[in-house]
User: Fold this.
Amino acid sequence: MVREKWTDILPRYMTFISHMRPILRETRRIILNLDPDLLLDIEVLDKIRQEEEKRNIRKVRALSEFSAMYRTNVYEIIKDFIVKYREDIPIIDIKDYIVEFLYESIDALTVLQNITNPDQRNLEETYLYQLVKFIELTIFSRGSSIQIIYDKLLENSVNYYECQRHLLMPHTYYREKLENPDFFVIPGVSPKVYQIINNITSLYNLDPNFGEFPEKENYEIPMVLKNEIFSPYIDSIANPEEEAIESIAERIGLRILDGIFLSPQQEAVDIFLKNNFFRESKQSDGTIRLIPQFSNETLILYYLAFASMRRGFLSKELINWISMNFAFLIYMGILKWKLTDENIFYSIFKDLQTNEKVLPYLMKLACFPNYLGLDKMKIRDSPQYRKEIFNFIGSQIDNLKDFINEIAIYCKKIEKERKNK
Amino acid sequence: MIEQQDPTWKELQQEFIKGVENAIQQVNERDVENIPGAREALLQRLNNMRIHFPNNNGAIFLKSIDDKIQNAFFPNTKDFTEAFQKILKSRTHEQDFIINELLNGFVTSKAKAIAMDTQGPIIDRMVEAFSKRNDFHIVDHQFFAMFGDPNKPRHYIQKQLEELVNLFGLISKELVIEKDRRRSEKKVYTFYTFPPAILKILEEKYLIIDDELGYAYVSEAFDRNIFICMFLANIAVNRDDLEKIGGSYSINGISAIFALILILGFMPKITIDETNPILRDPSFDNQNMSVIPKSWMLKQVLEPLFGPLIKIIAYRIGGGLWLSKIIDSEINKKIHTQIRFLLRDVNKWILGNLCRVEIPIFVEIANIFTEITVGTDTE
Assistant:
């Protein structure tokens, strides 16, 4: 397989964006020069579009098809907007609105086109770098130890825990293996594994057993019975998870002791103690017992910190999912910053056909070592797969919307800092 | 009067009281609480339940189930539109979240054959599917793309799709294309949408009809709870027709979920010391949440209450027919344990304590309990 270089991927990312922008600019010019009254006649717009299409001289079929589709969508949206409001708003104002919306959209595309540069000059100052780092800090923090990463994640979990959890749960979990022949590979969290982690949290909080802390004399750590975790499952529906419990446990800071107990690893004990998820209680015989007082996020954030620490060993699904979410957040953050909520062209930007032309390359760019540092070779190129994962990105999660707003605010900050320089 | 002579009802109440006594014994035997007074508060509440529940022919149950739960979730009517409207009206944001978490788990497992490997937010995907089009319809091939397993033949999910459509009470329309562009063959597309009377109700808030363009968009307010309301309305109206509501599986599931809601409503709040770190935890909302004793989450405490309560719910909502479908097997007990685990999705563990999010239905049930208990004490 040919290793894809930065200079291979960036032009591909630019290709479609550089075709969208001229279409919008051309449309803006046409609308600006058009007598407002002519806009009332919808057929005029159709004719203009047909004329525009004749000028199409692109030789690559995929590009000319895309351009035609894109232009048609733009004109259809303009037509719908006119038909919808021509009775209520003076046509001159409608024209102004359309031009304004086009200005905003072109602005957004300009930022997307200049998100970075071919030679990565002053890379720390590019939008791509700054946005990846901003998002990374909040939901996929870096650090030299799990403890450092965990602390950073916990600090941000107050506002963005749902985004952090979302990042761990790929929609394509059914393609994942819980255990991999390569022991180091870390998969995402499937809904069932999530349920099992929740079970473990409850069992720790409710009525755990206590046993000797192997690494520390005079200390007792809490333990839960492996069997108890799986007792509610009937018809062997959690058999794969039960068989892979050792691997799952490792990812949430636990381990199997005496073959039957699930207990915390030494490193996790330190982290949980530091963050008040364990409380020390002195027993009558002088031993110190660590009483668990877990919150919902205690174990999930450990998984995330563990995945972040070992990001070189993430499964294919998880890499695709994480990079797709990063690309989506960057893309939507820029749109939120540049486009007003009522902009009629939002739907084109959010359309699957546009998404799949921009996001896959943005995903790969975000994976380079200076950015997320994930193995971009694991990003799938199949259109079917893209459909599978893009179809539901960002849907139904309010917390993700809040985060996009925050990213938009951060974009403004970057712009302000640039202007001040 | 008639109910006072109802031997089944009497027997069910006795069974529940036995369960309460059993739970009291369990709480007495083990102490897992770390908040001073939590265990005592739970014991007092269980004792109150033991004393007051049998009074006045089980008035607390009658008020909680027949009035509150039934009004909000299973209106007593044969008219689907009326039922849907009533359920829709009882929505509140917080209540939506909890009820949705509980029912979503149930509906998802019901639609497991479609949703690949029994997991996945099937209702969310339905919402997405409706939101992505501008005619408020979804078409069958959209379904196949969403839920079809590429490794299995398409007819495999066709039947499941019909089941799902029935579950939510959607209606279908066929579009016949005499010659399709690709193969020049006759092709039949099936579109699904909501019944016309329901569309009228949705137009008030959830659906935007653009007469000019002939489009129908969903508004921001359109969400998964519309489907939950359809599902509940379908069960309420067809409660006597087991085939239409998914047989004993639905009855067991629904009764168990509402038994849980009842138990959550009955549980006491604990007063916590102002120095307790929970109060300083950013995820704890003092206005909207309360700490509850964690002992009642113990299997040993919850199990004796849960079984009889499921039967009580089934009897109050669906009479003898539903009661006869409640299966008392070991496997069912395991399923109940699974439903018990759903509680963690609707409540929150904060620093080792279970915190209940207060929603109207819990508050209303708790109020009935307090009202009747105080009333009896005064007498």
